[in-house]
């Protein structure tokens, strides 16, 4: 993955531009639809941005836990202050490489269009494997126009996920209108 190419600095200008233009985006819906959520699911959104996926998930997850982790303070503030926010969503400061959650504490983790921003992909996947319970799921969603799939091949990602402790890797291309998103899905090993 070309980190240099996809490593914008999340300064105030970029964060406000992103929130104004992309905080409601179909890929968040794709992930929530693919997640097979239950009312008591414990969900982690890694790099939750403005929190759209968690707000969508809150329609189903009523007794479980919804946690968003986000490293950019202004983005976290935007998420917390969103007019459609739900009080039960927990927004925590943190990054993929150092998740502020206990071991095996979530049923499903997802990351929507953030993988290409992680500074340490192997470290982030290891952290995801630490916090997802055995048998739980991870979905990495990446839009076709932000991810260089020749730089991060499916096989390279499968290998990285397997090294981190995930299995059952498969890719589900999902499209609505002009938006094509790849849902990289896998499951935490049972042992
Ligand atoms: C393109 S936005 C996507 C936000 C949200 N997931 C969405 O789909 O609306 C990328 C987000 O990744 C966050 N980010 C950057 N580096 C990160 C890291 N190392 N770990 C987790 N999130 C990160 C940014 O702060 C930003 O909120």
Give the biggest sheet: 7 strands, mixed
Task: Report the bound ligands by name, code or SMILES.
Answer: S-adenosylmethionine
Total number of domains: 1
CATH A-level architecture: 3-Layer(aba) Sandwich
Fourth CATH level, the homologous superfamily: Vaccinia Virus protein VP39
Task: List the strand order in the largest sheet.
Answer: 3-2-1-4-5-7-6
Average residue-wise pLDDT: 92
User: Strand share of the residues?
Assistant: 25-35%
Give the termini distance in whole angstroms. 29 Å
Compute the CA-based radius of gyration: 15 Å
CATH class bucket: Alpha Beta
InterPro entries: Methyltransf_11 (IPR013216), SAM-dependent_MTases_sf (IPR029063)
GO molecular function, one term: S-adenosylmethionine-dependent methyltransferase activity
Pfam families: Methyltransf_11
Protein name: SAM-dependent methyltransferase
Structure description:
By secondary structure, the protein is α/β, with parallel strands linked by helices. It has one domain: Rossmann fold (3-Layer(aba) Sandwich), CATH 3.40.50.150. Helix content is 30%, strand content 29%. The chain has 6 helices and 7 strands; from the N terminus they run H-H-E-H-E-H-E-E-H-E-H-E-E. Strand 2, helix 4 and strand 3 form a beta-alpha-beta unit. The longest helix has 11 residues, at 12-22. The two termini are 29 Å apart. S-adenosylmethionine (SAM) binds at residues 10, 18, 23, 25, 28, 46-50, 52, 70-72, 75, 95-97, 112-114, 117-119.
